[in-house]
């Protein structure tokens, strides 16, 4: 079986002779697809759930994320691929997710909803210059992947659409997300690494994740880690982030039973407008896949640094709540100025850390000043992942996308 399944979605502004172009697509069974893309092409997904194949759950989740058993496969789907490009000159992929959102709300789903894009165990991935609309579930989901770049992408899903995350790197490494606009019904970016005992057993972390120049709005968090983080998350760098009209800007979600760790996170240069909670960490979040999870598997949350943040019309500066007997430690805040409306701007428990130049003044648990001997506690990444580090020159790659056949 070839390592690449040629697909389909390269929509360019001008094809040769200014005519429509046709691409032949090869699937694992020798099937062929002709997909025609023209200027500003729109690819719409099927709305009949019976037309969506059901595949096995991911091993790091042990079951479908929403229901036991399998899960519906995404439209754009690939496994064990190398050199993957999904791109277009403002082409649009519309998931037409409303029927799936209704099924979720009405509790009539038979299996977990499909993602819009899912690539599994793949390397050298580029997703760029396209618009993704109305995903049934998470929009772009690279899982067990290496060397992934998502750039110049627009993702739009209505507020109120359930669990419609934007970009979810999951047990993946060397991921760069840059120059994206995202507006969704859930987290704009959510970094994950497996769920409870399944994620612990699978043991593949998300590491070296870089986010640059993100703009967006959401009913949830701008940048989130978790709640599925049982394989571990580390070496996360985010800079030049603009979040507006949102529930929260930065969020870490975990709970007893998750295990794993979140460490070495550095977030810098954020502008927040009309945000309910600027910084929110919670150690009591989320459900479990089954009753076999280890209640003594406590997560380690440490060395989280947030610097250079300004915010207007913020309701609360921080809601930072660890786990009793399992403190979140080395939380470092510096040069943060927020215009906060609530009289009690900070609410902290079971956390320890440091702060300087924070207004309004941070909570007592984080009030220790940052001195030179705290440098090792307050994390700063030694190296920033950029797109040039994780993607080959486009001149050396074919501008096509890859899709697994149904």
Automatic annotation (TrEMBL):
A Gene Ontology biological process noted in the UniProt record is: carbohydrate metabolic process
Q: Which GO terms describe its molecular function?
A: polygalacturonase activity
What keywords are annotated for this sequence in UniProt? Answer: Cell wall, Glycosidase, Hydrolase, Secreted
Q: Which SUPFAM superfamilies match?
A: Pectin lyase-like
Determine the domain of life of the protein's source: Eukaryota
Subcellular locations according to the entry: Secreted, Cell wall
What Pfam families does the database record attribute to this sequence?
Glyco_hydro_28
Report the family membership.
Answer: Belongs to the glycosyl hydrolase 28 family.
- Protein name, UniProt field: Polygalacturonase/glycoside hydrolase family protein
Q: Which organism is it from?
A: Medicago truncatula
């Amino acid at each position: 079986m070839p390592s690449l399944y040629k697909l389909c979605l390269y929509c360019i502004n001008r094809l040769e002779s200014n005519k429509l172009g046709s691409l032949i697509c090869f699937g694992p069974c020798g099937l062929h697809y002709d997909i025609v893309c023209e200027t500003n092409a729109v690819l719409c997904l099927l709305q009949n759930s019976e037309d969506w194949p059901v595949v096995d759950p991911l091993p790091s989740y042990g079951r479908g994320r929403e229901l036991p058993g399998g899960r519906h496969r995404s439209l754009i789907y690939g496994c064990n691929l190398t050199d993957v490009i999904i791109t277009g000159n403002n082409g649009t992929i519309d998931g037409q997710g409303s029927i799936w959102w209704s099924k979720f709300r009405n509790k009539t789903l038979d299996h977990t909803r499909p993602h819009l894009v899912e690539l599994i165990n793949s390397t050298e991935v580029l997703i760029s210059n396209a618009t993704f609309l109305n995903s049934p579930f998470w929009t772009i989901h690279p899982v067990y992947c290496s060397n992934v770049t998502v750039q110049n992408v627009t993702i739009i899903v209505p507020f109120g659409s359930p669990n419609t995350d934007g970009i979810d790197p999951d047990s993946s490494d060397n991921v760069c997300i840059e120059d994206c606009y995202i507006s969704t019904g859930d987290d704009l970016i959510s970094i994950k690494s497996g769920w409870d005992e399944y994620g612990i057993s699978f043991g593949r972390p998300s590491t070296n994740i870089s986010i640059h120049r993100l703009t967006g709005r959401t009913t949830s968090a701008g940048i989130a880690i978790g709640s599925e983080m049982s394989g571990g998350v580390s070496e996360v760098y985010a800079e030049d982030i603009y979040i507006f009209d949102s529930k929260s800007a930065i969020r870490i979600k975990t709970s007893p039973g998750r295990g794993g760790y979140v460490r070495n996170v550095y977030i810098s240069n954020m502008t927040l407008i009309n945000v309910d909670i600027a910084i929110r960490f919670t150690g009591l979040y989320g459900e479990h896949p089954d009753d076999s999870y280890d209640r003594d598997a406590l997560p380690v949350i440490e060395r989280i640094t947030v610097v250079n943040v300004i915010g207007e019309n913020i309701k609360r500066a921080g809601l930072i709540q660890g786990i009793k007997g399992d403190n979140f430690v080395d939380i470092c805040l510096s040069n943060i100025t927020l215009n906060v409306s609530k009289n009690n701007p900070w609410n902290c428990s079971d956390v320890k850390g440091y702060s300087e130049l924070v207004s309004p003044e941070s909570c007592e648990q984080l009030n220790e000043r940052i001195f030179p001997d705290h440098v090792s506690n307050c994390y700063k990444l030694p190296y920033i992942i950029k797109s040039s580090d994780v993607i080959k020159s486009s001149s050396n790659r074919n501008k096509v996308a890859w899709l697994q056949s149904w």
